[in-house]
Every structure is written in C-alpha cells, then in structure tokens.
Design a protein that fits this description.
This protein is α/β, with parallel strands linked by helices and about 450 residues long. About 45% of the residues lie in helices and about 15% in strands. It contains 17 helices and 14 strands. Strands 3-2-1-4-5-6 form a 6-stranded parallel sheet, sandwiched between helices. A 6-stranded parallel sheet has the order 11-10-9-12-13-14.
Length: about 450
C-alpha cells in the first residue's frame, strides 16, 4: 500500500516512519523546503528516541520518501494522512488553515479515489469542512470522483512516540463508509496482530475523543497540583495522598503526580480549544477553565517558593535550573514551565544558569527571541552540564525530571553551589536524604 503523510512534525514524521517500518510505502510531505532537504540527508528536525535510526533505515530500504509537493504524488497513493499544525488563534480556537489547505490541494489534483484522514487534533465538525472543501474543488473542475474523509486522532506521548505508535493501546478511527473502514483496517492490521484494537466510531465522536482524552489528563494533573498546594498548608504529604487514592481501581495511579505545571504541544492547546468549542456552542466548561487557572498558577509555584526562602530579595542572586523541555526525552519547549520561571527570574534581577540534556538549542532560540535577551547577556547562561549549571548558585530548581538528574554527585553539587537551597519541581528526591546532605530542600506538596 502507498500512502502520503502531510506534515513532518512530531505526529507526521513519527507516523510516516512507523508505517514505513511495517512495509507501507510512505511519502512524507512538507512545504518547508529546508526541512525536506535535511530529511533526505538524514537530518531529523525533532528529538525523539529511536526516530533517527528508523528514518535512516526506511529511507535506505526505499520505503520512506520525502517531498514538498503533495500534488505530484496523489495519483500514486490510496490514503493521505493530514498531520499539519493546528496552532491556537488569539481566542484559543484551533486554526484550521493548514488542514483546509491540504483538503484544497487534494480536491484540486486528485484523479482517482482517495481517503483523506485527519490525524491533526481538530475541533468537532472539521471533517465536514474538509469534505466540503474537497467537493468544492472537484465541482470547480467539473469532475465527479469518489473520496472518503476520516478522523484518526493520534495518542502519541513525546519521548515514547515510536512505542506508542508501534504498540498502541487503541486506535480510534471515525469513518463514514464501509470502504473507508476496510482500508483503515488493512493499513493498521500489522500493528495489531496480537490484539486487534481499532475502535471505529462516527467522525464527530472520534474528533471529540482526542480532546476529551487530553482534557481528562490535564484535569488529573491540575487536580493533584491543587491538592499538593493544600497539602503544604495543612501538613499533609501529597506523595502519600497520591498512593492512597491511586490504589483505588476506579482512580488508578497515572497522571496523579504533583509538579510545577504541564506544558507541551497538546494539553495547553487542546484544553483551550475545547473550552472555545463549548463557548461557541453556548456552553461553559467550568471544570476545564479551572484546570487552566490552576496550571497557570502552578507554573509560577517554584518562583513563589524561591521568593519566600530568600525573603523576597532575588536581585543579584544566582539561580540554577535543571531541565528546560516541558518533559523528559524531548526538546519540545512549547508552553514549557521553565520559560515562565526563567522570565520571572530575569525580571526579578537574577542571574540564571540552565542546563538540559537536549533542549538547550531550542530553548536558546526562544529565550533570545521572545524574551529579548541578547546572546552576550551575562544574566542568562547555558551550561555545559549539571555541575557547570550549579556553579555559585544560591538556589537550584529542578524543573524537568530527566534521568541524569536523578542521582547526581551531590558532593560535587554542594561544593559548586554558593547556597544550599534545592527546590524540587517534580518530587524526585528524598527529603530526609537531601537534608542529611546539608541541603535546604523543598518539593511540591
């Protein structure tokens, strides 16, 4: 089978590469000429464990191809996956211009039956707009060609995306015809031979499932962060509370970890988009609005703790941050809590020293561009390693729980630091151990 995947971001490149790994002939398409040129040379635009090797292997096997022109390959494919970006508009709603541009191109250049499958996270009703857009272009051409639209939302965790795609716990697909159902079943069967778990449903339900899933996970995170903040006030330990409620089979233990807020490409954007969808339909999602409010506060919680420990006097203090990406095993800086923290620290007059195993190049671009920090500004230092970052620090703040931060040489850290304050934004260290080592330690909750 031959397919095209439009968009070479996290979703598109991972999806296309994994399909190729299973023997499908895949062409990944992107309008970014430089990105496509780099991919043909084996230069991967994102960090995702295992992806580079898989791309190179399938390019060599001639199952994975790259192009900037979707129109040129439509006659050779049966399925087109649309995995383009849906960035939020100013009001929080999803911007569908790239999704509809893919549909427009399909309508303008298709000459035989095609199925256009939306993998991007899109609001309920998008499939209708996609179908309408394709049909309008066919009508302009004066041709009658059968086509299907479908919704196949992705559920990939950055940092573990390949495993999620190759061994999914479920594949959600919204279809309108038996032909579309058979085509999707054929395409996904190799992934699910042991336990065929494609969940077919109507398209609006599939579109809603993606938003509802991310909103539920974001809600669990904000709920636990809210509980953690209350735990601090009443003398409870949120880690004990988490174990207590997580043992209830009705609740479970996943996504119940308190921390310094969620970020990334999905949760913030999707929660906003779902709230906006409800508003447009005359309904208020009050729970999700509270989820947003809690998360916005939580991204500043380490800064507030630092202020309290240093009696509000932050000017001239050196602060170390371990971890910049929104989560481990990715270089994704979108809505990362570290960005809020860095901005607050710089505004307070701190000298900020940061280290991340992967995300420094991406973070450097964002910090210099959006925060207007010059490359030679001494107030912002990108360190070479965790110990370099800790040099002369009055306080050290853990923001992202990369594995290499779990067991550092605390003796070296203690010697490098000027102060002894450790603020753990992900609750990965043991309080008694840290106090025994001579650190003033505080976590979340």
């Amino acid at each position: 089978m031959k397919i095209a995947v439009v968009g070479t971001g996290y979703v598109g490149l991972v999806s296309g590469t994994c399909f190729a790994e299973m023997g499908v002939d895949v062409t990944c398409v992107d309008i970014d000429v430089q990105k496509i040129e780099n991919l043909t040379k084996g230069i991967i635009p994102i960090y995702e464990p295992g992806l580079e090797d898989m791309v190179l292997r399938n390019v060599k096997a001639e199952r994975l191809h790259f192009s900037t022109q979707l129109a040129d390959i439509l006659d050779n494919v049966q399925v087109v996956f649309s995995a383009v970006g849906t960035p939020p508009d100013a009001d929080g709603s999803a911007d569908l211009k790239y999704v509809l541009e893919v549909a427009r191109t399909v309508g303008q250049y298709m000459n035989q039956y095609l199925m256009l499958v939306t993998k991007s996270t899109v609001p309920v009703g998008t499939a209708k707009l996609v179908r309408q857009t394709i049909q309008e272009e066919l009508d302009k051409r004066g041709v009658s060609i059968e086509f299907d639209v479908a919704s196949n939302p992705e559920f990939l965790k950055e940092g573990d995306a390949i495993n999620d795609f190759m061994s999914p716990d479920r594949v959600v697909v919204g279809v309108e015809s038996e032909r579309a159902k058979e085509l999707i079943t054929k395409l996904y069967r190799p992934f699910l031979l042991n336990n065929f778990r494609v969940i077919f449903m109507d398209i609006p339900s599939a579109e809603m499932t993606k938003y509802a899933a991310n909103a539920m996970l974001a809600t669990r995170i904000s709920f636990m962060n809210d509980i953690a903040n209350l735990c601090e006030l009443v003398g409870a330990d949120v880690n004990m509370v988490r174990k207590g409620i997580g043992s209830d089979q009705r609740i479970g233990g996943k996504f119940l970890y308190a921390g310094c807020g969620y970020g990334g490409s999905c949760f913030p954007k999707d929660v906003k988009a779902l709230i906006q969808t409800a508003d447009q339909n005359g309904y208020e999602l009050r729970v999700l609005k509270a989820v947003e409010e809690v998360n916005a506060y939580q991204k500043q919680v380490l800064f507030h703790k630092l202020q309290r420990h240093l009696d509000g006097d932050l000017k001239g203090k050196t602060v170390t941050i371990w971890g910049l990406s929104f989560k481990p095993n990715t270089d994704d800086m979108r809505d990362a809590p570290s960005l809020i923290l860095i901005e607050k620290l710089l505004e307070a007059g701190c000298l900020v020293r940061v280290f991340d195993p992967v995300a420094i190049p991406e973070a450097r671009k964002i910090i210099h561009a959006k925060m207007k920090i010059a490359e030679d500004d001494a107030s912002m230092y990108f360190a070479n390693d965790i110990y370099d970052a800790a040099l002369d620090a009055d306080a050290l703040l853990l923001v992202t729980e990369w594995k290499e931060f779990r067991m550092p040489s605390w003796g070296v850290v203690k010697k490098a630091m000027k102060g002894s304050l450790i603020l753990d934004g992900r609750n990965i260290y043991d309080k008694n151990e840290m106090n025994g080592l001579g650190f003033m330690y505080e976590a979340i909750g």
